[in-house]
From TrEMBL:
Gene Ontology molecular functions: Wnt receptor activity; Wnt-protein binding
GO biological process, one term: canonical Wnt signaling pathway
Pfam family, one: Ldl_recept_b
UniProt-recorded name of the protein: EGF-like domain-containing protein
Repeat positions for LDL-receptor class B: 2-45, 46-89
Ranges where the EGF-like domain occurs: 138-181
Gene3D superfamilies with a match to the protein in the record: TolB, C-terminal domain
Source organism of this protein record: Chloebia gouldiae
Cellular component GO terms, alphabetical: plasma membrane
InterPro entries: 6-blade_b-propeller_TolB-like, Cueball_EGF_LRP_Nidogen, EGF, LDLR_classB_rpt
Length: 181
C-alpha cells in the first residue's frame, strides 16, 4: 500500500501513518493513548494493532484510524514486548518469564503461553501469504545499479510508481533530484 506505520509517545502519544518517503504524515490514533510500544499490521484486512503498556491494553484500528476496539486489558500487558499478527492470533513476548504468548484477536480472554525463550524482546511471523507480491517499482536498480536512479537512497512515495531520492548524512541532494554531493 506504500505506507509506513509507527508509534510515538513523546510529547503527545499517537499511532501515525505516512508514505514510505516520510511525506503525508497522518495521526490515526491520538486520543486515549499513553505509551504505545509495539505495533503489528494485518496486511490482508488492513488493521493496525498496538500495545499500550501504560494503559495496559492491546488495541486495534483500521488503516484510517476508525473502528477502534480493545482486544484485551490488564496488568499483564505492561510486561509485553513485541507484537505480531497471523491469522486469528496476536503473538507477543512476556518480558517477565520470556514466554511467547498467543492472544486470540477476536476473543482477547483466550491467552496461551506457547514456549519460553532466552532473552527474547521482539517477535515476527513470516508466512508466504503475508508477503507482498513483488512488482516493478520506482526504486528498482537502473543499469548502472543505482536504486531508482538515486545515487544514495531511494524511498518509495505513496505508490509504487513514485519515489524520492535522499542523501546520507553529510551530503546534499543535487539539482537533478537524484545525485548527492
Amino acid at each position: 500500500m506504500g505506507k509506513l506505520f509507527f508509534t510515538d509517545y513523546g510529547n503527545a502519544a499517537k499511532v501515525e501513518r505516512c508514505d514510505m518517503d516520510g511525506t503525508n504524515r497522518t495521526w490515526i490514533v491520538d486520543s486515549k493513548i499513553e505509551q504505545p510500544t509495539s505495533l503489528a499490521l494485518d496486511l490482508i484486512n488492513k488493521y493496525v494493532y498496538w500495545l499500550d503498556i501504560y494503559l495496559e491494553t492491546v488495541e486495534v484500528v483500521d488503516y484510517q484510524g476508525r473502528r477502534r476496539q480493545t482486544i484485551t486489558k490488564g496488568r499483564q500487558i505492561r510486561h509485553l514486548s513485541g507484537l505480531a499478527v497471523f491469522e486469528n492470533y496476536l503473538y507477543t513476548i512476556n518480558s517477565d518469564n520470556l514466554s511467547i504468548l498467543r492472544i486470540d484477536r477476536y476473543n482477547g480472554t483466550d491467552v496461551q503461553a506457547l514456549a519460553r525463550l532466552d532473552n527474547a524482546k521482539e517477535i515476527r511471523v513470516y508466512q508466504k501469504r503475508t508477503q507482498a507480491a513483488v512488482r516493478s517499482h520506482a526504486c528498482q536498480p537502473d543499469p548502472p545499479g543505482a536504486a531508482g536512479g538515486c545515487s544514495h537512497l531511494c524511498l518509495l512515495g505513496s505508490s509504487h510508481k513514485g519515489r524520492t531520492c535522499r542523501c546520507r548524512a553529510g551530503f546534499v541532494l543535487g539539482a537533478d533530484g537524484r545525485s548527492c554531493k
